[in-house]
Amino acid sequence: MSKLKTGWYSQRVGCDVSVVRWGDVGAPVLIFPTAGGDAEEIERFHVIDSLGPLLEAGRVKVYSCDSVAGRAMLTEEGTPQHRMWMQNQFEQFVYHELVPSIRNDCRSDDIGIITAGSSIGAFNALAVLARFPDAFTHALCLSGTYDLDRFLRAGSTGTTDDWYFSSPLHFVPGLSGERLDQVRTRFVLLASGEGEAEDIGESWQMADVLGAQAIPNRVDSWGREWRHDWVTWRKMFPQYLSELTTPKAP
């Protein structure tokens, strides 16, 4: 299994962004880090090890990038409005810069990408699928945190258009027309434990929003023995990515 680390300066987010790829062939999977994690977080926490059989079999080809917007939220960088702007800019970076890079690496101008993540990574996975269904086919959202008000701390200043288009809880209810029709051909899988620090209620809330728009989705509860931690996600990632990349019977 090969590993390639690259990156570039993005004017959209105003900094260098690292991008890492593991594997040589297979369905492209973009895994977002948690909170302010970097592109190699999933390797340090042994998610890549857990995906070893899928990578070796050529079932998946995994990509990750620095969580630029998550870092801004975690450190309370600038004003709340700045953090909302940064989230929007990060999603624009993913669509306009990272997606073309992944497609170029896969030697396909239109290959669909599976997007995935845990905690705030799940937020990003769902956000880019809802906004850009022409690029993403599935969102695998583990132990998702979808209401990020506590990180924004917007208070009485309220939210902005940047945040409206960046946040699935706000954006999905307003989807209509061709964009909604396309998102309805996609699939969102929301999985969560119910143990320490988990809040499966966030997944159910997001499922209600998706369901109201007839967007295909599923919520899986793993029960109280699974906590909000990497030990849970190392089990979830390979199980669900195997499911999502299993060829459909004719």
Topology overview:
Elements: E1 3-10, E2 15-22, E3 27-32, H1 41-44, H2 47-50, H3 52-56, E4 60-65, H4 68-74, H5 80-105, E5 113-118, H6 120-131, E6 136-142, H7 149-152, H8 161-166, H9 168-171, H10 177-183, E7 187-192, H11 200-212, E8 217-221, H12 230-244
Parallel strand pairs: 3-4, 3-5, 5-6, 6-7, 7-8
Antiparallel strand pairs: 1-2, 2-4
Oligomer: single chain
Q: Specify the overall morphology.
A: globular
Strands of the widest sheet, in order across it, are 1-2-4-3-5-6-7-8
Low-confidence stretches: none
Polypeptide structure, described:
With 250 residues, this protein is of the alpha/beta class. It has a single domain, classed as 3-Layer(aba) Sandwich (Rossmann fold), CATH 3.40.50. The protein contains twelve helices and eight strands. It has helices at residues 41-44, 47-50, 52-56, 68-74, 80-105, 120-131, 149-152, 161-166, 168-171, 177-183, 200-212, 230-244; strands spanning 3-10, 15-22, 27-32, 60-65, 113-118, 136-142, 187-192, 217-221. It has an eight-stranded mixed β-sheet, with helices on both faces. β1 and β2 (15-22) form a beta hairpin. α4 (68-74) packs antiparallel against α5 (80-105). It is globular.
